[in-house]
Amino acid sequence: MAARRAHQPSPAAALDLKSYLRLTRGVTVSIAYLLPLLAAYEIGVQRTGSDLRNSAELSLKVVAGMFGSFGPWIQRAVLLGSLFVAIRLARRNVPALRLYPIFLLESILLAMLLGPAVGALVDGVGLNHRVGILPPGGIGTTERILLSIGAGVYEELVFRFLLLAGGFAFLHRGLGVGRRLSLAVALAISALLFSGYHHMGVGGEPFVGSVFAFRTAAGLALGLLFTWRGLALCAYLHAFYDILCDLSVRSGTA
6, 74, 157, 220: least buried by Cβ within 10 Å? Predict the structure, then answer.
């Protein structure tokens, strides 16, 4: 038995593109990869003392607040659970840490492609997607980056994880709707809500058809990517895209 184990390939030796895609798509690795992004956001907010928050984050905290004094414990349980997952990955020798730089590079490259790809789709029907995507004025660079990271984490949790994955599970497993139809409906609804939520509330943007179409198309793209590559990649891509968009606007190239 010992000799047979000695000839078995280690996770690192067996790693290839297919293994990379499978490992980084898994729920446990996605949770572990979300930790640095979430930590950067929470630490940044605490250090800057900023009162700015992402609307999706506030919505989740409102829901947690409905549980009264148990609300903060729910958030702590989620954090402790994420840490437990990361520790389990390390103990199982899953090469998640070694794959993390490659994962970051993939996220940045996809973020650089998302804007032009979705923009070409929207421009193809005669709409100008650049209207209304400028970041709010009077906000420092650090706060803008934090808002971008917060959007990546919390908007993907709400619209891709809760609404898309949850909606699919409700339709397919709960109501017995066909798999493809369930996915199509959940994908469309989550993308439309993702776009519409940016125009809602006190701080919402004025409704512009081209902007709504652009974000709907982006929501569809992120939803499809979520089904293929998982939550963490969507969160990082979303955050990097918002940061790159902000930098390009400030430099006058957008």
Answer: 6
